[in-house]
Amino acid sequence: MAASGKQDGGIANAMTVDVEDYFQVSAMESVIRREQWDALPCRVERNVERVLALFERKGVRATFFTLGWIAERYPAMVRRIAEAGHEIASHGMAHFRVTAQDPDRFREDVRRSRQILEETAGVPVRGYRAASFSLTRETGWAHEILAEEGYAYSSSVYPIRHDHYGIPDAPRAPYRPLAGTAFLEVPISTFELFGRRLPCGGGGYFRLFPYVWTAHGIRRGSHAKGHPAVFYFHPWEIDPCQPRIRGTSLRTRFRHYTNLARMERKLERLLGAFRWDRMDAIFLRATGD
């Protein structure tokens, strides 16, 4: 698959997709138990097909951080992602936050999810992203376990202040959290304004804020420093027809459902304005890992 034709500064940025369904997000945990997941209408296949078609139109390769739960139930979809030239990476088994696990349980989770994804897709799995960016100061032990389990990098830190996640003073560029190892942590992109770090790496911020916010942030926060941006979104974010979950808070409804109908058009614009590639192609190849 060819690289995106229109370039901004010649820097290839990392496009990433967190493959989970609308009912699996952490904000729904209070109203939907994991035991209920199989009984709910799943929309991930149709949404991933739309994402793949969009990437094909724009000539973009990406990294799909995929739940083991999804891979077990939709193996053909995972194989289609890999066959289209995208990277398969782990998002854990069932969207448990790192902060909700002890080291032994976390090790089991990342080992099992990697095994399932590799057996399903027939490709090596080298990357990991924690559910809800829940790799925090208190869970720094997770980096060591990931390295021991054969992962080459994590993209689990959002270096901002947020009510549910974030390490506000973490490095904004890729860094090696384990001394003497090649293991990388690749944070989600931010930029600084008046001494404050602001998000520009996708997700709800991309839907809620004007397009120029993200474009400016990528240029100011990443390209101005000479390093690639890291952007993420979820397949359910391009699905305005998804079922509405009852019982959620006003804040959750605002964050989850606002501007779903505009998301795909904004994504298409972003994909055409910058160069994009897989995480492993950008960060592992550059470091020789």
The CATH class: Alpha Beta
Q: Could you give the order of the helices and strands?
A: EHEHHEHEHEEEEHHEHHEH
And the CATH topology?
Answer: TIM Barrel
Mean pLDDT: 92
Shape call = globular
Description:
By secondary structure, the protein is an alpha/beta fold. The protein has one domain: Glycoside hydrolase/deacetylase (TIM Barrel), CATH 3.20.20. Helix content is 36%, strand content 13%. The chain contains ten helices and ten strands. The strands form three sheets. Strands 1, 2, 3, 9 and 10 form a five-stranded parallel β-sheet that branches. The chain has a three-stranded parallel β-sheet with strand order 4-5-6, with helices on both faces. The chain starts with 11 loop residues before the first strand and ends with a helix. The model is unreliable at 1-6 (pLDDT under 50).
